[in-house]
Amino acid sequence: MLNDSLKVDLHCHSNVSDGVLAPIAVAAYARKAGVGVWALTDHDEVGGIKAARVAADELGMHFVSGVEISVTWANQTVHLVGLQIDEDDPALLAGLAATRHGRDARGREIARQLDAAGIPNAYEGAVKYVGNPDLLSRTHFARYLVECGACQTTAEVFKKYLTEGKPGYVPHRWASLEDAMGWIKSAGGIPVIAHPGRYKFTQTGEDALFDTFRQLGGNAIEVVTGSHTPDQYATYAEVARRYGFLASRGTDFHAPGESRVEFDALPPLPSGVTPVWHDWF
Ligand code: AMP
Ligand code: MN
Ligand code: MN
Ligand code: MN
After folding, report:
1. Residue 168, in any domain of the structure
2. Mutational test site, ligand 1, from 12, 81, 137, 166, max ligand atoms within 8 Å of CB
């Protein structure tokens, strides 16, 4: 087992979803920051995996094929990372294609709402940032809202727009947790609940998510992620110990300077948790 968890990054995005760098450029960026075990986990899409694997091999990084599936559970969006997946698995590919479906129509509705709020041409503006026409994301809108001066940062965008109760929020039904778990399992992968601290569940709701996940065969959560605050590293390390879940770690990198934490600034996993990669090497 690799003890140095600082070298492991199991959550990153490329321009195949809502990151800005091509998969090979993400690989190079991660390598330069000292990453030795790296997963590309684009949203609802595995189109970058083969290029990423070649790049990682050339750079001497151990590559882990991954994906981050958008799920609707108890009326909230939950992200489920799949690690060590076979990116050619037909059930996974069909499930991801179905999950991507509807993003464009949702984007047009987001733009209609932004227009009504005084921000015209947001659809065209967002599409300029898209690397994969099947994957128009709120992140692309956020970049455009910064570009046009509506906000200073993408973080500010998600405070003022695109989220529940704000202009540009369009509810969307993603995959079910059962289906997404099934696709990951079909592809031989390990399901991991991404950034559990980001969801707005009550304590009872959060416990129900973990219980359901476990009943469906899940046994890993992200503990140290760029989407958690330092307090949440400790909170979810404790959850991992209590539930007996394996712990994952990753920056949730999207773009240089855009993530809350850069590759080399993310802390190691807290002690007393078992890394999800404990039996990989
Ligand atoms: P979508 O899948 O189109 O709903 O977009 C979700 C993406 O928006 C996430 O993967 C993040 O990259 C980004 N996002 C969501 N909420 C925030 C936030 N509060 N701050 C920054 N980025 C966010
Ligand atoms: Mn994202
Ligand atoms: Mn996510
Ligand atoms: Mn992510």
Report:
1. no
2. 137
Nearest Cα residue to atom 20 of ligand 1: 155
Q: What is the CATH number for 149?
A: 1.10.150.650
Q: Which ligand is nearest to the CA of 138?
A: 1
- For residues 92 and 141, membership in a common domain is answered with no
Is residue 66 within 8 Å of 40, Cβ to Cβ? Answer: yes
> Which atom from ligand 1 is nearest to the alpha carbon of 154?
21
Domain of 127 in residue numbering reads as: 103-160
Strand order in the sheet with 190-193: 8-9, 37-40, 62-73, 76-83, 190-193, 220-225, 246-250
Does one domain contain both 33 and 86? yes
Mean pLDDT of each 10-residue bin along the chain, 281 residues long:
80 98 98 96 98 98 98 98 98 98 98 98 98 97 98 96 98 98 98 98 98 98 97 98 98 90 92 96 90
